[in-house]
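Hi P.,

Sorry for the delay on this. The queue was packed all week, but I finally got your sequence through. Input first:
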Amino acid sequence: MTPLPPDFQPVACDDPGVYRTLLESTRAIPWRIDWATMRFTYIGPQIEALLGWSPASWLSVNDWADRIHEEDRQKTVDFCVAQSQRGVDHEADYRAVTRQGDYVWIRDVVHVVRRPDGSVDSLVGFMFDITARKQAEDKILQLQRELELLSYRDSLTGVANRRMFDTLYPVEWAKARDTGHPLSLVIIDIDYFKQYNDHYGHVQGDECLRRVAQALDAAASHPGDLCARLGGEEFVLLLPGTDAEAARSKAERCRKLLKQDDIPHARSGVGRLVTVSMGIGTIVPGAQDDPGVFLDRIDRRLYQAKSAGRDRLCDVEA
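Then the structure:
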């Protein structure tokens, strides 16, 4: 960068036309509103290229408000009016409607001009087109949401993972306690899965897990039902608002759908197809009940089903 000569002196310019030319050559759109009349006394011609509305059509603050997207209008107007009445400089982001019916994201930067006695004389500001920035921010938020969803999804089977179950279980427990509605759990384990893997290999074992998960997920079809993989070959159904009879019916449906899927298992100890064992329980939680204790109870029922010969369900403790 070339240094300025030591005797350089900036030249003052008193020509308002120069300042207007500078303002109107920027991408930011300058404007001014008279406080007493709430009417525009100036708006940059750039506004027409951005929104399609001619400068002459911006007469009062009503024109500005009417051209704000209806979803943003009330909160934007209320905020800007309140800040202006307090004499506070402020910024507002909102969607401005174009003459063609589309919208552009605007950042309005507002300065309150006061008279020597402190009373408000006018509002001046700049409108900036921040559409590209907003689109980039929205894309980032979308990616963050997708990543969050993936973090709650079991990558192998496509059903929910243990993290999702651990997040939703206490929520549904509290809801059942507060409403007096039943909450049911079904814990499922694939019978002789180690033998399946040893015989068919891990690639086929992964495919078996996916097919079992699909059958279980299909059985848990009511809104609010959750099928999650707890880990390994173990799954859980979280069934809010489901009584004991309905929970048993859904568990039997799981077994029926799995049988229909007809997955061969040459090393099973209970037949020639892949089967599952299940522990089932239903509770209307009271203030003294503990969700961890209830989960352990259902887990014990699962192992009772396995100890009793597998390929069965258990809904009572021995």
